[in-house]
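Support request, please re-run this one:
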Amino acid sequence: WKGFTQGENLLFMDSYDTFLPGGGRHDVNDPDDVNLRQNLGYIRVYADRMNLLAMKPRGDLSSSGYALANPVTDGAEYLVYQPEAGSVTVDLRDASGELSIEWLNPNTGATYSGGTTMGGDRRSLSPPFTGDSVLYLSSADGGDPSSPTFSDTPPHHPYYSQITALVTRGVVSGYGGNRFGPDDPLTRQQFAKMIVLALGLPVTVDDVCPFGDVAQGTPGSVDPLYPANYVAVAAAHGITVGKTATTFAPYASLTRAQLITLVARAAHLPLPPADYAPPFRDFSDDHYPWARRAAYAGLLEGEPGASVTSDFWAPATRGEACWLLYSMLQRLEMDAGM
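Re-run finished. Output below.
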């Protein structure tokens, strides 16, 4: 993070074999190397989200001395690394209006929404965890021109950062009337499209849906493949299943337990160690094993809204789905060393 916020091009080369000069072997699972790879993945995520071309090393704008910044009146962005525990002060005098606050814990990969702050002055901000931290500030009025704005998803909404990131990636979209519906119940057919797009699975008109209650897309519509072809691909990859062999219940809501299971299954999360105990009880023969995998993989850490683990049987919302899908993508990109 020190290197990235100083404008350096990062590279980490694993040993191409396991032997070290003078004997001995290189441990590819060394915790320091694993953490380094993970953080290269986190850096890649922020590099993709920011208007990186406009960002410059500006350590003088941060009390920590480590910052990339585009300090402009409209569309300002700041990425700050604080290598020590505690607050960090950022000089926002060149920015105006509200800036959304997002924290990343580089030790766990969890992200936290911190609401908003105002430009026009120096601001001292504190992360909601201990240890080193990464702070991302982006203008609520500008920023990346490809970033969406929805009337019902302001920058202080708990899932604003995740929704914005997924819309920018083309994974999710809003309704008519400039709405996203972050608090709306998530339907089964909506999730099928979300997960297929998140995983980058190809979808064509040749993907035949086996469920008779899923509508065919309308030619000439914004997305003529929705919903039938997306449901077909999700089912073909074993991510979603029907209620019966021929019915899918496309408009039925997903529970939080079902959402976690589907995401964990799609991400092919490994089994945790036998002695791992997640921070919740065994609540279901079908869903607890998958939720346990998700917890061990870190997908359930740092949720900015009401915890999905507080009531597994409550209807999942579109915002919660975006948070979990974004966590999944971070995990997959981290594993791929991106």
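The radius of gyration is 21 Å. The chain has a mean pLDDT of 88.
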